[in-house]
Design goal:
The protein has 6 helices and no strands. The chain is mainly alpha-helical.
């Protein structure tokens, strides 16, 4: 039950982050932020079920989504989302192929 409450809090905070986004963000920026949010939730929900290789692949996809956000000028918002879910991009992802 506590997990569901924490998840709802993250969703509410994301909604607050994007509130009025139509005026502040382009459609592409909102798309990338929502994609990052969805991947973060997927990682949080599936972390216990995924094998190490699958988790590593998901982390790479997350890092790519984060980089898309920074490239579109919404890196600060992406970092807030990462911190809300207790994750942070690391430079080790950028050196792995």
């Amino acid at each position: 039950m506590e997990y569901l409450e924490a998840e709802q809090q993250v969703i509410d905070e994301l909604a607050a982050l994007l509130e009025g986004g139509e005026d502040r963000y382009s459609d592409l920026q909102i798309y990338f932020l929502r994609r990052l949010n969805r991947l973060l939730h997927l990682r949080q929900q599936e972390a216990g079920r995924l094998k190490a290789g699958e988790l590593r692949m998901l982390d790479r996809v997350l890092f790519s989504a984060y980089r898309d956000c920074t490239a579109e000028g919404v890196g600060a918002e992406a970092q807030k989302m990462l911190h809300l879910l207790g994750s942070a991009p690391t430079s080790s992802h950028s050196t792995d192929n």
